[in-house]
Amino acid sequence: MRGTADSVSVVGVVGAGVIGASWSALFLAAGKAVDIYDPAPDAEAKTRAYVAQAWPSLEALDLVRPGASPDRLRFVPDAAAAVARAGFVQESVPERLPLKLETYRAIEPALPADTLVATSSSGLLLRDLQEGWQDPGRLILGHPFNPPHLIPLVELLGNERTEAGALDWAAAFYEACGKVTIRVRKEVPAHVANRLQAALWREAVHLVAEGVASVEDVDKAITAGPGLRWAVMGPHMLFSLGSGGLGIDGFCQRYRDSFHGWWQTMGTPLLTEQVAQSLAAGIAEEEAGRSFEALAAERDRKLIATQKALRDAGSL
Ligand SMILES: NC(=O)c1ccc[n+]([C@@H]2O[C@H](COP(=O)([O-])OP(=O)(O)OC[C@H]3O[C@@H](n4cnc5c(N)ncnc54)[C@H](O)[C@@H]3O)[C@@H](O)[C@H]2O)c1
After folding, report:
1. Per-domain residue ranges of the chain
2. Which residues pair with 73 in a beta bridge?
3. pTM surpassing 0.90?
4. Residue 73: closest CA among 127, 24, 119
């Protein structure tokens, strides 16, 4: 019988790259011990440095529990050792099916009874990832938005082979670590959030490629406009409110013809060399001499401030 999500004291992390290191920081902040495996020779030093750098942000977001410590990160010599005492496992090895399957073959025999494994995979199909498992019901999708320690969203997906109750349990576990979860009810490429992001970026690229606005102004059109609203409420609810009390169905009736017309003019650009170069030229202008590090720090500072404000306002 699986314990409560709160009773997990050790999380197994397999793969300590961009995503695995960030997950580790989050789980450590949630007061868990993290047993982690990554074969890269510099993985331990890089992960410890990453966690140290992430810790102040986690503190600023009130995600560090009493007793939590970065020192509870333990590098182990193989994948099986990373899961052997884990109450939950987050797999974040590179996005290659054979490597994921090889990893599962290595860890399944060592998994404690009832421990679930979540894959961070952005694009592989769960049914393909379940191949070769003795008990495929223990593998679910727990897809984060990068970086997992700063962006709350986790997309959860199971299928007909998934153990009953596994997604509810995983949702409770992630939420106890400060995450916000959604359920993906049907498997589609790129899940939900990346599809939405891709849809918006497609039109953003189209507008630049057609010379409608500069890269900087397209970015500003989002951050100073709908992006601000989207941090507060989703597009459906906002349009429902935008109906002036008629509801989303009233909004659809009132603006049906407008949206149908606009949708017909939406672009389907490709990221050709020429398009990539014109985006790069626009980004160079928008950067205005600021370094990669300075911009990344600015992004993280603003993300933290926004989330704190939203939490104070009762969101998140
Ligand atoms: N980068 C993103 O924005 C993002 C966002 C959400 C989900 N994901 C998903 O997360 C997963 C990891 O992506 P990433 O961006 O962290 O990749 P990455 O290349 O940065 O990290 C992968 C890590 O796995 C390690 N590794 C290689 N073989 C291994 C093995 N056999 N056992 C354990 N570790 C091994 C590598 O040394 C590397 O450190 C992928 O499935 C990806 O789709 C990525």
Report:
1. 5-183, 193-232+270-312
2. 34
3. yes
4. 24
Q: Tell me what pLDDT residue 6 has.
A: 85
Q: Which amino acid is at 295?
A: L
CATH 3.40.50.720 corresponds to the domain 5-183: yes
Residue with tokens 């993906």: 184
pLDDT score, position 1 = 62
Cα(220) to centroid of ligand 1, in Å? 32
The answer to whether the CB of 97 is under 6 A from ligand 1 is no
Average pLDDT score over residue span 43-69: 96
Does residue 5 surpass a pLDDT of 90? no
Q: What percent of the chain has pLDDT over 90?
A: 96
- For ligand 1, whether the C-beta of 17 sits within 6 Å is yes
Q: Tell how far the Cα of 275 is from the centroid of ligand 1, in angstroms.
A: 28
Ligand 1, atom 2: nearest CA belongs to which residue? 146
Q: Is the dihedral of CA 103, 108, 113, 117 positive or negative?
A: positive
Say whether pLDDT at 112 is over 70: yes
- For residues 251 and 240, the answer to whether their CB atoms sit within 8 Å is yes
Q: Whose CA is nearest to atom 39 of ligand 1?
A: 17
Task: Please tell me the distance between residue 97's alpha carbon and the centre of ligand 1 in angstroms.
Answer: 12
Q: Please write the tens of the pLDDT for every residue from 248-260.
A: 999 999 999 999 9
